[in-house]
């Protein structure tokens, strides 16, 4: 095994066995405060411009059941590095990339996309258990999520829940819903994998939970008096490749560490994403 740069051997084992790992002290308190303030400023500005455009709670009857028929919401912004250099610094943070190198086992790390979800107090929507795989399938399954907590998070304010070890099941048959805005949601059968049987994963402000895109995850309703803010980065190894032409986003395949030797330098491809 290569010498670990950031993770402990226990963290690396947790990643391999359970498909997720909690990381502390990746960012300094100052970096977290800067991220948090920039995040709030961005959401406030975009709320004033187009509140309805930020809505991203899932639709469908299974969601209604999970929400107890409440009127719930999640506000979301994607591609935050296109809005502020603070988030460009977050995705290129050297501690973060050291930790990613440890768990991914490669130096060559590419960005897929970033996003932020705020679950507001009292009406924050839950997420049905799902794999991220069907949203952006890749050949070697190297894709992973870095879920940065910007608030102390527990099941009460909409925290994450995971089925540990579920990444070993491979891609599971997804249920697919398409809403009236033509957005597709993929999740697994809630009878077979209910949120109620998953393992809650609480985290403090600044802590990260990284999980593979095959790891079954979801999150709870936020009925508390506290918001739950997160910033999420999806990464993959350079030697992986998409198996479907889907989920294109700005800065995709930006090389965050190492090299992408698979990138064409042919002039004919210079405008390609
Ligand atoms: O915001 C959350 O709690 C969950 C988000 C999530 O699982 C996803 O977008 O894939």
UniProtKB/TrEMBL annotation:
One of the Pfam families matching this protein, by short name: PhyH
GO terms of molecular function: metal ion binding; oxidoreductase activity
InterPro entries to which the protein is assigned, alphabetical: Phytyl_CoA_dOase-like
Cofactor annotation: Fe cation
Official protein name in the record: Alpha-ketoglutarate-dependent hypophosphite dioxygenase
Species assigned in the record: Cotesia glomerata
